[in-house]
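Example 443.
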Amino acid sequence: MRSSFGSKIGMVLASAGSAVGLGNIWRFPTEAGRNGGAAFILLYLACVLLLAMPVMIGEFVIGRASRANTVDSYRVLAPGKPWVVSGFIGVVAGFLVLSYYSVVAGWTLDYTVVSFSASLMKPMDYGGYFDSFVRNPWRPVLAMAAFMAATHFVVARGVEKGIERFSKILMPLLFCIILVLIVCSLSMPGAEKGLEFLFKPDFSKVNTQVVLSAMGQAFFTLSVGIGCLATYASYFSDDTPLVRVAFNVCLIDTLVAVSAGLIIFPAVFSVSGAQVDAGPGLVFITLPNVFNSAFGALPVLNYIFSSLFYLLLFVAALTSSISMHEISTAYITETFHLERRVAARIVTAICMVFGVVCSLSFGIWSGIHVFGMGFFDLFDYFVAKFCMPLGGILICTFVGWDLKHSTVRRQLGSRFTPLLMFLFRWVAPIGIGIVFVYELMDR
Ligand code: PHE
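Predicted structure in complex with phenylalanine:
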């Protein structure tokens, strides 16, 4: 018998866990900081509603209608047709995304350990720390491997006993940490400037590049386009309202992203001289320096704030990496009729090898470039800018034009079906297509 989720809440938390990750807490504030704050956020919301959410619902339809892994789902629903390519894109992207994601997730693990064990009174120079850490040939690799082992531990236990059970523990933990951190951050002196940056749009910064980033961010943060959520939906029960679940997942994901902004920007603005457009270093360099001095008179609060923040990043990363792992684990288990534990080991081993390559591209292999990029950036580009949009176009076109209308209607069971069909057929494929072509021409 195929596995399934045991409860509705477990299913929603697992899907939200996939969506909520480094994309929300690391990538979103970085992108918003670089691209003009509130104006970027508005564009991003439009991309979520018009482009990424339809892809998510399309994935849910495909997964539950077929009850198979992302490759077999097309074999079940459209035998002999070339749509299966979309499934293979998903499996390849699943391997690659887990490989580079776990490198950054490894950093969060290291920072969690370091901030929990840091001496309360001694501020560190995090800029120097970060540089020497990522360049070290061993430490980031070991951290990546430890993170991958944690992911493996959960996935190998199965859908209900592993993914669902851990999501039910980790997601509430994540929500609690977020609440504590928002309160801490908003109580810092000068926090209003951060709120203004986050909520007052400055449209002068908007250009095509900002639109491209907003769509890339929407796809990455909602985990759509590579069959991850289709795989999860294949474990949903028959009476799960797909449109409602998708809406809830998008809502939770967006709330967490905005919360991350509420935690980070007031804190960064409150400490003078801190930069919001610092790029990927925002969370690993700028922010820890903020933590050093945020509550000047009460160093113990700095300690709590920074330790909880990195724990939050780690937990969020783990619930996402589990879902990436599951794409390939489900595929290998069902295609080669292997035990789940064996399939999971194969996936973990392959991703660790790729992970080492990505990790070293920050250090001793930083000189090696393919298509003008280091391995980490290359993997990220290929997954986020190529596989996700292409997969998204294929998924919407398949559900809108090829899949039997009665199947789609039965799966959706919603009064929004006509609107969704319009999005599947026209808005999403054309919208994603335009951005995708721009993106490729831009390189
Ligand atoms: N959505 C995750 C995040 O925001 C990343 C992710 C991408 C997860 C693709 C699964 C698949 O971090």
